[in-house]
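Sequence, please.
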């Protein structure tokens, strides 16, 4: 028997060793495949998160754009409404002195002559036409006699003590004010009551 010839026992051992090496190689190869597979999943997860983030950003931009467009539409609509509501502002301001002159002329027309009566009748009719026109276009008079002073709608011409009047109350109206659709055309020129001055100790 040759010295190099393997015995059955040695053949078995060789086979076992060869199988073990093959198993080790297969395990390493399988581990590499598993590792590569896990890395690919992580990449997909990352790409999915990035896609979600981009979609969220796009949605936010779309919502903001829609909100801005809605605000722009509302502002435009309000501007158009204001333009219609207050188109007569300049004309109304120019018209008020004419109306004031008619009222003053009617107040100054005294006497019982036929000419005076005719003048008063004509002036009174014209004033009523003006008032109807004001009502049609929502021009409202401000006549605050007896009301608390309101700096937004009243212009105080003077302050004076008035017996029995509450301080800061309008006690006289020199000229009526007017508003157009709630917007001030002209403030009312008024006299405002002030509190009575207390006598000083020296005078007492």
């Amino acid at each position: 028997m040759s010295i190099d010839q393997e015995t059955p026992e040695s053949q078995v051992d060789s086979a076992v060793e060869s199988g073990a090496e093959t198993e080790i190689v297969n395990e390493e190869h399988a581990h590499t495949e598993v590792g590569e597979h896990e890395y690919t999943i992580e990449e997909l997860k990352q790409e999915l998160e990035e896609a979600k983030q981009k979609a969220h950003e796009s949605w936010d931009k779309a919502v903001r754009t829609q909100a801005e467009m809605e605000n722009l539409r509302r502002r435009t609509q309000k501007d158009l409404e204001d333009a219609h509501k207050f188109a007569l502002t300049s004309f109304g301001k120019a018209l008020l002195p004419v109306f004031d002159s008619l009222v003053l002329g009617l107040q100054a027309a005294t006497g019982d002559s036929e000419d005076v009566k005719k003048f008063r009748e004509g002036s009174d009719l014209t004033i009523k036409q003006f008032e109807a026109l004001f009502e049609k276009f929502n021009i409202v008079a401000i006549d605050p006699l007896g009301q608390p002073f309101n700096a937004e709608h009243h212009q105080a011409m003077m302050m004076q003590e008035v017996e029995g009047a509450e301080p800061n109350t309008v006690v006289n109206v020199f000229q009526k004010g007017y508003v157009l659709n709630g917007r001030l055309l002209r403030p009312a020129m008024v006299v405002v009551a002030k509190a009575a001055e207390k006598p000083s100790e020296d005078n007492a």
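The chain has three domains: 11-85, 98-137, 139-197.
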